[in-house]
Amino acid sequence: MRNPRPQPGVRAGRAGGRKRAGRAPVLFWLGAVLCAAAFACTYYVFVRTATGQFVDESALAAAGSVWRPARRLFLGFLNLIPNLSAALAAVVLLWVALARRRRHAAAAAVGVVAASAASSWLLKNLLPDRPDLGIPTLAHNSLPSGHTTLAAAAALAVFLVVSPRWRPFSAAAGGLYAVLTGAATLVNGWHRPSDVVAAFLVAGFWTLLAGPLVLRAGEGWNVFGGYGSSWASSRWWPRLCWLLSLLGAAAAAGIYWFIARTDPGAGALPLFFWAGAALITATGMLLGALLTWLFSLQSGRA
C-alpha cells in the first residue's frame, strides 16, 4: 500500500494539526502598508489643509487654557519618559535575552525602538514645514512626536518579546502608557494631536515589520494556548482596547460634528482639546487591539 502524498503547502512541522507561528507574513506587511498610508493621510489632513491646521492648533491652544494648573505635573512626567521608557524596555529585553534565551526576539525589539526613534527624527526634520494657510500657527514641522514615539516603541518592544499569553495584557498596559504620554505632550503644549497619532503609526509600522521575524525565529515559544489560559491572556484586555478605541473615535467624531453643526464660537475651544485627546486615545488603543488580534492569530497552535 502506497503512502499518501503530502498536500502542497503542508510542512512536516504541522503534523497532527500543529500550526506554525508567523505562517502568513503578508498580513503583517499589509498592516505596515496601512500604517504608512495612515501616516501620509494624517500629515496631509492636519498639516497641508486649512481645516486640519485649525482643528489641530485649536486643540493645542485649548490645552494651554484648560490644563495650565496641571502642566507642572505633566512636565515632570514627560521629563521622565526617555529614561523610564529606556529602563522599562532594557529590563524586559535583558531578562528575555539572558534568562529566556530569546536573543533574536530581543534583537528585533531593539531594532524596532531604534528604527522608530530614528525615523521619527528624520521625518520631523525632513518633512516640509507647515504651509501658511491663514491659520495662526508655528511654521516648523513637529510631526511626529519624539517622546510619544519612544514611549510607544518601548511598549511595543516589550509586547514583541513576551510570551503569547502575556501579549493581551502587554498590549493594553503599553497602549495606556503610550496614550498617557501622548496626552501629556498635548497638555504641556509640546505637540498637537496629529503629532501623537503619527508617532503611534511610526512605532506600529516597525513593529509590524518585525512581527514575522520574531514569530518565525521563536517558533518554539511563540505558541498561544488561547484566551483565558491565565489572567494576562484574559479576553478582557483586548476588549478593553477595543472599547477605549471605539469610545475615543465616537467622542472625537461627535465633538467635531457638534462644532461643525452649531458653530459655538470661542466657547468651542475646550471642545477641540477633548476631541484631540479622544483621537489620541482611539488611535493608541486601536493599535493595541489590532496587534493583539494579529499576533494571537499568527502565533503557533499546539
Automatic annotation (TrEMBL):
<feature type="transmembrane region" description="Helical">
    <location>
        <begin position="236"/>
        <end position="259"/>
    </location>
</feature>
<feature type="transmembrane region" description="Helical">
    <location>
        <begin position="105"/>
        <end position="123"/>
    </location>
</feature>
<keyword id="KW-1133">Transmembrane helix</keyword>
<feature type="transmembrane region" description="Helical">
    <location>
        <begin position="26"/>
        <end position="46"/>
    </location>
</feature>
<feature type="transmembrane region" description="Helical">
    <location>
        <begin position="196"/>
        <end position="215"/>
    </location>
</feature>
<dbReference type="Pfam" id="PF01569">
    <property type="entry name" value="PAP2"/>
</dbReference>
<dbReference type="InterPro" id="IPR000326">
    <property type="entry name" value="PAP2/HPO"/>
</dbReference>
<feature type="transmembrane region" description="Helical">
    <location>
        <begin position="73"/>
        <end position="98"/>
    </location>
</feature>
<keyword id="KW-0472">Membrane</keyword>
<feature type="transmembrane region" description="Helical">
    <location>
        <begin position="143"/>
        <end position="162"/>
    </location>
</feature>
<feature type="transmembrane region" description="Helical">
    <location>
        <begin position="271"/>
        <end position="295"/>
    </location>
</feature>
<protein>
    <submittedName>
        <fullName>Phosphatase PAP2 family protein</fullName>
    </submittedName>
</protein>
<keyword id="KW-0812">Transmembrane</keyword>
<feature type="transmembrane region" description="Helical">
    <location>
        <begin position="169"/>
        <end position="190"/>
    </location>
</feature>
<dbReference type="InterPro" id="IPR036938">
    <property type="entry name" value="PAP2/HPO_sf"/>
</dbReference>
<feature type="domain" description="Phosphatidic acid phosphatase type 2/haloperoxidase">
    <location>
        <begin position="101"/>
        <end position="211"/>
    </location>
</feature>
